[in-house]
Design goal:
The chain is built from eleven helices and twelve strands. Helix content is 34%, strand content 14%. By secondary structure, the protein is an alpha/beta fold. InterPro entries: Cys/Met-Metab_PyrdxlP-dep_enz, PyrdxlP-dep_Trfase, PyrdxlP-dep_Trfase_major, PyrdxlP-dep_Trfase_small. GO terms for molecular function: lyase activity. It comes from Streptomyces albipurpureus.
């Protein structure tokens, strides 16, 4: 243990949120399935009704808080999905007449959020993530929403710079930290008011549950988010919360392998003539690398690149054996997809987003290179 910084990431992930040991009780108590709790007298206890609170949520929220803000007070609110967490921040903080700044190159569902915000009379301004371009439309906004690295383009913005500028104008700042996870970067330590994530992805990492969270250090802001969860009922199931907490124990191991695999894939792809637009923040030739190395501890498990056209990209995906053709990312099993098939991202038809999992690095790189060979026009090596 480092005496000045506290436990390392692996130690913290393994121990996060565990209750004090009780003789003959499990280390991590099982999920509590309850719509209501015994409640004699006045409702002064922590658990009253299942839409408000649950002991399984409590353990998970404490665990995530310890990862998002080690050694400092923090409040975390878990949700049924990442979109529920995103919506809770936006709709709990914004009112008719307010202005919000969103990235125009962020998560695919943000345009749907924009439509709903505008329907409520909220002004929505957008700008790219790269070059801190959101600064140009910040004046007078109530909330700045940052996504870094951006999904799927993997651009990086300077969180601390944007936070300082936003706070000077009176705006709150929320950072979607889904891709990096708290082991990659900690937005609250960089001054953000909200750290938000879809825990469906890397934080839980097994592709078998939907979950999200919001962490913040201001108890008033946290209460607003928590109240929104109660109003809309976007609560996580106890089994999902328990599975998520169990998964945190391997977070550091999973993230380390995923990042190592992503870097190895990026290095291999960089040598391929048919590959263009290669992006990975941890690659020294990437335009975001200088900023990413200052801001991030780990660079994530996502690599994006462009193949010549749609048909070429689909041949590549069909030829992969160790990488599933699936949406989402951050799991122990590698996935990849042609993002253009959804129609919501401003990307070329041959754009590939590849999420590196926990397979052996040599096997994963070999599979990708073989699939690239088979995808070449006129190739006779297809199996």
């Amino acid at each position: 243990m480092n005496s000045t910084e506290g436990p390392g990431d692996g130690t913290r992930a393994v121990r996060a949120g565990l209750p004090e040991p009780v003789k003959y009780e499990p280390t991590l108590p099982g999920p509590v399935f309850a719509a209501h709790f015994h409640l004699p007298g006045e409702p002064t206890g922590p658990y009253t009704y299942g839409r408000d609170s649950n002991p399984t949520w409590t353990h998970l929220e404490r665990a995530i808080g310890e990862l998002e803000s080690p050694g400092r007070p923090v409040e975390t609110v878990t949700f049924a999905s990442g979109m529920a967490a995103i919506s809770a921040v936006l709709f709990s903080q914004l009112r008719t007449g307010d202005a919000v700044v969103l990235p125009n190159d962020g998560y695919q569902a943000l345009p749907l959020v924009r439509e709903q915000l505008e329907a409520y009379g909220i002004e929505v301004r957008t700008a790219p993530t790269r070059d801190d371009a959101q600064l140009s439309v910040l004046e007078g906004a109530r909330l700045l929403w940052i996504e870094t690295p951006s999904n799927p383009g993997l651009d990086v913005c300077d969180i601390q710079r944007l936070v300082e500028a936003a706070h000077q104008t009176g705006a709150l700042v929320a950072v979607d930290n889904t891709l990096a996870t708290p082991l990659g970067q900690r937005p609250l330590e960089l001054g953000a008011d909200f750290a938000v994530a879809s825990d469906t992805k890397g934080l839980t990492g097994h592709g078998d549950l939907l979950l999200g969270h919001v962490s913040c250090r201001d108890s008033v802001l946290a209460e607003g988010v928590r109240r929104w969860r109660k109003v809309v009922g976007a609560i996580p199931g106890p089994m999902e919360a328990w599975l998520a907490h169990r998964s945190l124990a391997t977070l550091q191991l999973r993230i380390e392998r995923s990042c190592a695999n992503a870097l190895a894939l990026a290095q291999a792809l960089d040598d391929r003539g048919e590959v263009s637009g290669l992006r990975y923040p941890g690659l020294p030739t990437d335009p975001s690398y200088p900023l990413a190395t200052r801001q991030m501890k780990r660079f994530g498990g996502i690599v994006s690149f462009v193949l010549p056209d749609r048909a070429h990209a689909e041949r590549f995906l069909d030829a992969l054996r160790l990488v599933d053709d699936a949406t989402s990312f951050g799991g122990v099993r590698s996935t990849a997809e042609r993002r253009g098939r959804w129609g919501g991202d401003a990307v070329p038809e041959g754009f590939i987003r590849l999420s590196a999992g926990a397979e052996d690095t040599e096997d994963l790189v070999a599979d990708a290179l073989r699939a690239l060979d088979e995808a070449l026009p006129g190739s006779t090596t297809a199996s």
